Amino acid sequence: MSEEAEANQYDSIVVGAGFGGLYMLHRLRKLGQRVLVIEAGDGPGGTWYWNRYPGARCDIQSLEYSYQFSDELQQEWEWSERYATQPELLRYINHVADRFDLRRDILFNTRVTGARYDEADQRWTVTTDDGQARSARFVIMATGCLSSANVPAIPGLAGFQGDWYHTGRWPHEPVDFTGKRVAVIGTGSSAIQSIPLIARQASELTVFQRTANYSIPARNALLDPVEVKAVKARYPTYRAENRETAFHADFGYNELNALDVSAEVRDAEYERRWAMGGLPFLAAFADLMFDERANKTAADFIRRKIREIVSDPATAELLSPKGLVGCKRLCVDTDYYATFNLAHVSLVDVNADPIQAITSRGIRTETREYEVDAIVFATGFDAMTGAITKVDIRGRNGQRIQDAWEEGPKTYLGLSVNGFPNLFLITGPGSPSVLTNMLPSIEHHVDWIADCIEHVSSGRFVSIEAEADAQENWVTHVNEVGNTSVYPRCNSWYLGANIPGKPRVFMPYLGFPPYAEKCREVADRGYVGFRLIA
Ligand code: NAP
Fold first, then answer.
1. What ligand 1 atom has the least distance to the C-alpha of 191?
2. Which DSSP symbol is given to 329?
3. I need a surface site. Which of 126, 238, 258, 295 has the fewest CB within 10 A?
């Protein structure tokens, strides 16, 4: 083999240098592997590299939305706010990359375009947009659940003479909307965070809403050093306690059911959670996500709050979601609803008046044209599968992953796909991922994958892949468990409902503690449900 060909041989190639890819590299290095991480951006960070829109910040507490694999790291890093901003998260990720000397094995500014498994030599050939091909025994997709930006196919965008942006592909240079007429399309988490800040600059802001969303005030604040000290004094125990909870986070779970208490007790609990702020609202009662009548009590409470905040009754009504709380991802905001009290901010209901086209001057709905200088697409992502199926992945017999997933993603444990040996997914569809605090779920997957790769590489085996039966049963199980909850009852990105033509399948697995137990059991029993080829 030539020197150049040898240089292109790796034990593992990891796709993506976000939280998942960085920690995967760190773990695989410890196994003595030669690893390459390939990243499209010019720096690490994944989600927090791309989503630089105004107001972007995490809605899981910083003390929990951080790595725990290194106690030194979690002790030494000082978060400033309860919910970290995107710049602070990016500083943290860059610090991790430097502290663990990760950059030297990351190829930046390079996008993976394909990965083909060669059965003869049991290796993957990974191709990139620079025309190179590299070979690896294992490929790990650390491509993120919300990374394939969705710009809706509205006719006319190419002819728009103003500037347009997608929240998930925000420019690195500051964007100044001062004095500009701005349109925001979408009212999900990204829109809800950015709208109040865009409104501070724009001379006119028009928000195009298709579905109203529930949002809880963040109540963000500087972190209290006493509280930080208390958590750090027992960090591993704190993490272990949260690992035993449904959302894998410190939400202060109430074991009571909303339907078992009086209306007064219920409202007092909702008031307490509203004042506390953030996603812990969903843990107000144990039955909220499982019983529609319980859910409705929370929905009524939030709708009442919206009416109290928004002065114009018609706008308040339009901003009030009609469906269930939390079955579309709950949003967390700072001054979102109050922003609609500003004279220069208006709301357009695109259900009543659908967008027909983008014109050179703005947005044309059925009834009129809105002239704007800039359009912000806060229109979300081809979630959970988009970043994987964008890559031309071909497994045994040249089978394409797009074809294998034609009826919806099929995985075993969200980690492995039948027909694609030695390919692993970090927080893939079929794993709890987006229904939990992503950071510990990522670390859980990376640890499991690293242990599995160590097992396969122990000398006895050449490859591992999900058995077809185990995968089929897992997909059925994911859906059965999902159907015990209210989650599949809305048109959410959890179901792929936001992308025209995407098969409607509930993709995440509900229930972290039983999931972690299952993963442990599978490994302990010699990777039951996987085919290990010697
Ligand atoms: P999203 O929740 O999918 O919201 C997209 C919005 O765009 C929705 O309101 C959607 O309406 C609308 N939309 C899509 N296509 C449209 C079209 N053709 N015409 C009109 N409206 C259209 O996306 P996101 O806000 O980027 O958030 C995605 C996820 O990322 C979140 O759910 C959350 O998990 C994560 N996130 C988290 C944070 C945080 O930590 N604070 C911040 C941002 C994002 P429909 O609802 O009718 O489809």
1. 25
2. P
3. 238
Q: Are 91 and 24 in contact (CB under 8 A)?
A: no
Q: Which of 14-18, 277-281, 455-459, 522-526 has the lowest mean pLDDT?
A: 455-459
149 alpha carbon – ligand 1 mean position (Å) = 10
* Residue of 329, 376, 487 to mutate, ligand 1, most atoms within 8 A of C-beta: 329
Beta-strand ranges (E) seen in 397-450 are 423-425
Q: Cα of 500 to ligand 1 centre, how many Å?
A: 14
CATH 3.50.50.60 residue spans of the chain: 3-44+102-146+383-533
Summarize pLDDT for 405-415 with one digit per residue, the tens. Answer: 999 999 999 99
Distance, in Å, from the CA atom of 203 to the CA atom of 187, rounded to the nearest integer, reads 20
Give 249's contacts (C-beta < 8 A, 6+ positions apart): 60, 61, 64, 242, 279, 436, 437
Q: Ligand 1 centre and the CA of 18: distance in Å?
A: 21
Atom 34 of ligand 1, residue of closest alpha carbon: 329
From 56, 380, 437, 92, select the one nearest 218 (Cα to Cα).
56
* CA–CA gap between residue 160 and residue 181 (Å, rounded): 14
Name the residue of 88, 189, 195, 492 whose CB sits within 8 Å of the most ligand 1 atoms, as the mutation to test its pocket.
189
If one residue of 50, 58, 85, 190 were mutated to test the ligand 1 pocket, choosing by the most ligand atoms within 8 A of its CB, it would be 190
What lies within 8 Å, CB to CB, of 481 at 6+ separation is 509, 510, 511
Q: List the structure tokens of 319.
A: 């901003």
The Cα–Cα gap between 218 and 250 comes to: 15
Distances in Å between the alpha carbon of 102 and those of 7, 20, 58, 450, 505? Answer: 18, 13, 24, 17, 37
Atom of ligand 1 nearest to the CA of 329: 32
- Which residues form the pocket of ligand 1, taking CB atoms under 6 Å from any ligand atom? 58-59, 146, 152, 167, 185-191, 193, 208, 210-211, 329, 332, 350, 355, 378-381, 434, 493, 498
Q: Taking Cα atoms as reference points, which of 357, 376, 375, 463 lies closest to residue 123?
A: 463
Mean pLDDT over residues 170-174, rounded? 95
Nearest CA to ligand 1 atom 33: 189
- DSSP states along 36-70: EEE-SSSSS-THHHH---TT-B-SS-TTTSS--S-
Split at pLDDT 50, 70, 90, the class of 46 is very high
Tell me the pLDDT of the chain averaged across its residues. 97
Res 5 pLDDT > 90: no
CA distances from residue 388 to 21, 112, 114, 131, 375 in whole angstroms, order as listed? 14, 10, 10, 19, 28
Sign of CA dihedral 524, 525, 531, 532: positive
Where helices occur in 310-359 by DSSP H, the ranges are: 313-319, 336-339
**Distances in Å between the alpha carbon of 321 and those of 46, 214, 327, 355, 404?**
31, 6, 12, 20, 36
Distance between CA atoms of residues 113 and 387, nearest Å: 11
Atom 10 of ligand 1: nearest residue by CA position: 186
